[in-house]
Amino acid sequence: MQVDWGFIVLITLFICTFIQLIYHWFFLSRLIFHREKKTNGQASKKEPISVIICAKNEDSNLEKHLPLILEQKYSDYEVVVVNDNSKDNTENILEQFKQKYNNLNVVNLKNSVTFFKGKKLPLSVGIKTAKNNTLIFTDADCRPSSPYWLNNIQSHFSNGTELVLGYGGYEKKKGFLNSFIRFDALTVAMNYFSFALAGIPYMGVGRNLAYKKNLFFKAGGFTSHYKLESGDDDLFVNQVANSKNTALEINPKSITLSLPKTSFKNWLLQKKRHFSTGKHYKKRHKLLLGLFGASNFIFYVSLTFILFFTNFWFWGLLLLIIKMLSLMVNYYFSSKKFNEKLLFLYSPIFDIIFALLNPVIIVSDLLYKKNKWK
User: Fold this and answer.
1) Is residue 326 part of a domain?
2) Which of 155, 270, 278, 360 is the 20 to 30 Å CA partner of 100?
3) pLDDT of 77-102, one tens digit each?
4) Structural domains counted in the chain
């Protein structure tokens, strides 16, 4: 009996399309229909805040962005900057700002420590130094999109909320690479926001993240993954977040923006570092994310076979159209929430590229594990 491989691949394509549509309309569509509570960035009770920033050789970024953080429209907050053994002019710039701003608290680390990797030691020092229980995190190369960033983030800390996930995007510049990187950041955000709305929070980004100081110490800080270079944001969220203690901040006034990488190689190294933590997520998160990515990869491989090597090309085109329409609808409405309105136009081509590129990055991380923060 001769096996009809074309028919088997077609069935595989149908199954992958079905899985993708479940993710698009059960998970990702939640972000489309999510409506922020109209608080105007005002919580019922304004709590004192500590903003934590780690800086390593960031003199130019601090000079541009730190004033925007120090001059937020919020009555009671401090900004703790941990200078992690910088060799540039970071320390002098921070000293100058300290003379001007009473709410700036600077910690200078002078000695390298090997038992904590990446940002985890300076972050831990910053958290311990912070005077307040409500902590908001960003990076030295980030700027808030408005002076109401702190207001909007802090407004969610009520009714048992211990953790708030925000959106960290990238500055819009000309060129394909810029659109590519911004699309990737948007995709990552769509996934972790949508899963959190489904009651399955699994990650956040350190460019825009907030949690309670007592939650950090209750969880043992970063000790469960202290040997890993990355994971100070996503692995910690993966460890402590649940459907009851996690809130989302989706408001254009609460976005943080940073400059993206200017070369594909540098972005690829950054992306590989981010992927290196995924294998340490909880099992159900790895299963859900793995099934989503694997079904997308198999979809395009099966589709290529169907279109060029079988007589089932009509079904292949039909399933492709259905998938792309679902994809573009989700990206269109979701991108509007994050001021990335035109990125949905790139979604068909970028979805194909990332479906094929992500497995390559994962394999590369397995073969070459050297991933450094700075």
Assistant:
1) no
2) 155
3) 999 999 999 999 999 999 999 999 99
4) 1
* Bridge partners (DSSP) listed for residue 258: 142, 170
Asked, for residue 292, whether it belongs to a domain, the answer is no
Q: Give dist(CA 350, CA 138) in Å, integer.
A: 27
The CATH number of the domain where 251 resides is what?
3.90.550.10
The rounded distance, in Å, linking the Cα atoms of 141 and 352 is 30
* Domain with 247 in it: 49-261
Q: How far is CA 11 from CA 309, 323, 324, 370, in A?
A: 15, 16, 19, 40
Name the residue type at position 142: C
Contact assessment for residue 77 and residue 152, using Cβ atoms and an 8 Å cutoff: no
Dihedral (Cα; 297, 292, 280, 170), 10-degree rounding: 80
Sign of torsion, CA 17 22 25 28?
A: negative
pTM > 0.85: yes or no: yes
How far is it, in rounded angstroms, from Cα 161 to Cα 201?
13
Cα–Cα distance for residue pair 23/326, rounded to 1 Å: 10
In a domain, 278, yes or no: no
Question: How many CA atoms within 13 Å lie on the side-chain side of 353?
Answer: 13
Torsion angles phi and psi, residue 164, rounded to 5: -125, 125
